[in-house]
Predict the structure.
Amino acid sequence: MNLCRTLSAFHRVVLLLLCTASTPLFASLEQQRINYLAAEQAFAQGRLADYRHLAGKLTDYPLYPYLRYNRLQRGITPERYAEIKRFLQEYKDLPIADRLRDKWLTDLARNRQWQHYLASYQPSMSVKLQCHYYHSLLVNGRQSEAWRGAEHLWLHGKSRPSACDSLFNAWRSSDQFSAELVWKRLMLSLEAGQTRLARFLKGLLPVSEQPTASRLINLHLKPEQVASCDLWNRPELADIAAYGLRRLSRRNADAALQLWQQRGGLPLADETRQQTLNRLALESSLAGIANAGDFLDSLPADVLDETLAEWRLRWALARGSWGQVASWYEQLPELSRESTRWRYWQASAVQELGDEERATAIFRELASQRDYYGFLAADRLGLPYQLNRQEIPVSEADLRQLEQQPAVKRIVELRHFSRETDARREWWHLVNRFEPPQRAVAAKLAQRWGWHSIAILTAASAKAWDDVELRFPVTYDDIVLQQATVQQLQPELLFGLIRRESVFDPSARSRVGALGLMQLMPATGRRVAKSRREKLSSSSRLLQPELNVRYGSHYLRQMLDRFDGDPVLALAAYNGGPHNVDRWLRKMHSVPADLWTEMITYGETRDYVQAVLSYAMIYRRLADNSNAGKGSGETLRLADVASRINLPSGFDLQPVGKVSRKAP
């Protein structure tokens, strides 16, 4: 009232017009939301007359297609096929159209409506739907296409769904099926560790070839037998001997390498020889075989893929063989040579070999980069870290234009109802059609909404790496700062860990079952709860941000205490498990942290530790900048938190952990 009295008559009229103009629009949207929920409830309760009445009021509401989808997908019958086709045509650009089509195709296959199936099929990731598609081709007289599809689907290392049986049975009865294809799949099944499938496939071979298949399967299970068997004396079995050797190298790389050097004159095809040399060299590097240097140095260029070239370099790093590091660096693939990782180690080798000027030049160039190795290089020279901040340039007009897109309006409504999964599907269905500049605009819109995980991922898809505030948001800060104080942790370490674990998505679920902001496994959550004398009544509670950060920070504190406060070891344990780190550390002597971290063979854990540490440095600098002039103290550096690692005394530094291997 006081405000109204201070306004002129003109301003009061304008204010009244604005209020009365906006009220119906606001009420209309709110009423539509109420009607939408009421319509969903009416349909769920079988009150179809009420449902139709309410749906009729919602034809211009963004989520109206979802009402129709829910009704159609819950009762797919032949009588509704025509209506489903109309829906798919009308809403072909919506993700729910793909979901409805998949359900409809399944029903068409069940009812053997193969002509309809063929006409309605769209490329799908579902193997089941693909098998039905190729079967529909067969039924409709397109045999050659059906056989090509059958072969493509059949050549896989794991069993296929029963929906493929009729297609495969028909194909196996044709002249397109051969023993050569059986051998190919048998090898694929062994590479995938599917010995049961391999034994089944053996039965599809001609009787005369089955004993050879039995020997191959036996070597897969007991590769040490390759040393004593007669495979080396029978040229026709050379490929099986090579397979056994590759398999043996995973269990005993030293024995496999010696056997190859003693009996390596097998009559192998070039591809098989390259594959065998590659496997032996990789396993020798991973096992840290001390006398493998000459063998590794003599490898032909066509044997060196990216993985082997990098692990060969790590073998040299572990031994301080700086001449080999410098030489083998030059043999890396171009992309690897240009990476900050390997340029950092090139500079280290050059420095150890006495060329200080060249090493300094490389370190100085690296120090301009905003990543783990850039920060390490800056520490070498005592230079400040470079954040290279550049906000994505987006206008208000760009944002408003994007907000007017129907898909964005649907996303807004889905998020209003906390339907995160559907909102994300809509988002990526839209954004994946955008060019990078449009994706950058979308990232800024998501940032404005506070949808931080989506903003970060969308910016990454646009390769917009330098909008640092967008990519490293300070969110859930009240929870993080509280738990950092309780657990005596550096807040930036917690922020960096959450940024890596979940990208600040409180509903994040990993493929192995980790949950929430700090990606806690349910078993870990229960152990933490027990140590706190609390009860975790349900694993789903770990999706609550406050509980997740409370338990996650408690667990990180436990790992720090277990490993004498060393952040590198604690982070490795948080990601890879404390028992793995325990195996690596017994009696102590000192090794530079950059080298120890480089030797972690769990690729995920190595990248994880390096990412969290570099993210923590970024968060610290963002905090320092926001606290400029407030006495924030000396700037924390990577060298302060990751300097040296204690290893077993007399320990010959080898890769730690297990590498993600391709099968032999």
